[in-house]
């Protein structure tokens, strides 16, 4: 993770978080551990927990704890244990929060308002969390400044598309040991994550059908070479179904009853609500329909790329967590200017991270001449 390493080197010199406590709720795996370590090197007291009960890797949690990072989380935590870990993380009364999905922020607005006393602000890693923040902001209920790191170009253009695209299929292939080539894949949602999942499925030799509710995204999927159908019409064709919408009950009873025997459903949205588990009540993994057909649900409907795999590749999370590290630094530097609300990081920080990443990969690019800047009206 060379981009994050360059930022770490500056943090070591400047100690921007000296005397500050940072509460982090992000999928507790190796790349997140590196982010926690970098924040610690910048002088922070770091308190870290997972953002999903099935994505926590126990060996990583133990490693973080051994480095002096207060760590709360176990793989397979019950709902009660998961909430306890979030609550324990906030007992430090943090100055900064880094959230993934919005659970820490939710607690800070409900049962843990007492932990707000030192809070300067925070940042959010994923689309679902930004949805939740936007609802609070639109209702003028957001109590502190939050940076939507998910909306930074160096996050969503790479993490959501290439990270999700690869890691979803890593998790599915590792867990099923089945081919993708020659199969039909139904991708629900054609946002940046859906584009990545569909692209990788196509590259693995699958026929891809996209389901959408947005006509513009549906046209984009058609122009990218994919078939587009409503879910219930796509259901009879699918061998794999992958949901990446951030919405609830994207696959329901009508679609399940139309699926072929042995169809496999997986979710890559943050919460386990996209595949309607209430419509699949028989047991945890295999659901037998009245006529004897079986539908399989991977990883209990939770994030398949993390619950059944190792998450995004390190090269991808290098970009995302570089943005998170700079977001924490930005909040500290602009504390007096930021009022409660939802913000996006300045574009120049995206450019800075992209420049670092390009250099680390051995690439260089052209620069505009003064004449070209004048022609474009940039002077």
- Indicate the proportion of strand residues: 5-15%
**How far apart are the first and last residues' alpha carbons, in Å?**
35 Å
Unreliable runs: none
Count helical runs.
15
Give the class from helix and strand content and strand pairing: alpha/beta
What is the radius of gyration computed over CA atoms, rounded to a whole number of angstroms? 21 Å
Average predicted local confidence, pLDDT: 95
Got a strand count? Answer: 14
Q: What form results from the Cα inertia axes? A: globular
Q: Could you give a short account of the major beta sheet?
A: 7 strands, parallel
Helix percent reads 40-55%
| SSE order | HEHEHEHEHEHEHEHEHEHEHEEEHHEHH
How are the strands of the biggest sheet laid out side by side? 3-2-1-4-5-6-14
How would you describe this structure in keywords?
379 residues, alpha/beta, 7-stranded parallel β-sheet, 7-stranded mixed β-sheet, 15 helices, globular
Compact overview of the structure:
By secondary structure, the chain is an alpha/beta fold. Helices cover 43% and strands 15% of the residues. The chain has helices at 2-14, 30-41, 58-66, 79-90, 103-109, 127-138, 153-176, 192-203, 215-223, 231-234, 253-258, 304-307, 314-333, 347-360, 370-375; strands at 21-25, 45-49, 70-72, 96-99, 121-124, 145-148, 184-188, 207-211, 227-228, 240-243, 263-267, 286-288, 294-297, 341-343.
